[in-house]
Design brief:
281 residues; alpha/beta; five-stranded mixed β-barrel; two-stranded antiparallel ribbon; 28% helix
Length: 281
């Protein structure tokens, strides 16, 4: 019998981020996307009805957007979480803190003119049901210092607080509290597919010249573990909106297409159709 319990897609970029998520998932089974071969482990979040499909996608927003859209089409999840590490952009956001993305910026858009760069911002808001679930979850996590703030995404490893990209973000995306490389890609794909989405990042460095020293001291592993803990606690509180990617109403990996229906997907039908009216429609 297929497992019809609801599923959430939890994505990471790096192996250490994936290991932090994987530690929370039980009864894991590995599968691969039939088209592009992306490997996914699907298991259970203990004490809940949630199935978690975890995937390690690699770095970069474009790569993340393409693979996220593909995985959503295959797995038909209720929601998408991107979990990992980031650099802090604010003095009061310290190493080991967690930033929950109230919105995610793609920072490279703009038009270059003789007067300079005219920024054309793009932003995707964290889905309110997931943001609210995260707010509720962290109230019961006294060891976690969480910030509900915007996150900036660029295909750049930021290790110089005086660099041009750092100044660009500070000038045009001044409310961003963290800097990373994948969140906008996942958020964009989830938005196009009509899924709730949230980016959760643990702070591993200050996006400055001290990044290498912080990484060498184990800050990445600690930050990834904090982010994964918050993400899984969020799922324990998450109550999806009606119609937000129902696993029971859409065909997909481990799902079904139930009820009395006439299914024309994948082909064209010519001829008369005899149907049944339901619900007064």
């Amino acid at each position: 019998m297929p497992d019809t319990k609801p599923l959430v897609l939890v994505l990471t970029a790096l192996a250490l981020e994936y290991a932090a998520v994987r530690a929370h998932v039980e009864e894991r089974e590995e599968d691969a996307h039939p088209g592009n071969g992306t490997v996914v482990e699907t298991g259970r979040l203990a004490g809940t009805d949630w199935r978690v499909a975890a995937a390690e996608l690699g770095e970069g927003a474009r790569n993340t957007a393409a693979l996220t859209a593909s995985l959503i089409g295959w797995l038909r999840p209720r929601a998408v979480l991107f979990v990992g590490i980031a650099g802090s952009l604010k003095d009061d956001v310290g190493l080991g803190d967690v930033v929950v993305g109230t919105k995610v910026y793609a920072v490279h858009g703009g038009k270059v003119t003789p007067e300079g760069l005219r920024v054309r911002p793009e932003a995707w808001f964290g889905s309110n049901p997931l943001v609210q679930a995260a707010r509720s979850a962290v109230r019961d996590m006294p060891d976690v210092r969480a910030h509900f703030k915007p996150i900036a995404t660029a295909d750049v490893v930021l290790a110089d607080a005086a660099s041009g990209i750092a100044r660009h973000v500070a000038e045009h995306y001044n409310d961003a509290a963290a800097f990373e490389m994948e969140g906008s890609g996942a958020a964009h794909a989830a938005h196009l597919e009509g899924r709730d989405a949230l980016v959760v990042r643990g702070i591993s460095d200050r996006a400055d010249a001290g990044k290498a020293l912080a990484d060498a001291a184990g800050s990445q592993q600690r930050a990834a573990a904090r982010a994964a803990a918050v993400a899984m606690a969020t799922l324990r509180k998450y109550r999806p909106r009606a119609g937000a990617g129902s696993a029971g109403s859409e065909e997909g990996h481990g799902g079904g297409y139930g009820g009395e229906h006439i299914d024309f997907r994948g082909g064209t039908f010519y001829g008369p159709v005899i149907g049944k009216q339901a619900g007064g429609r």
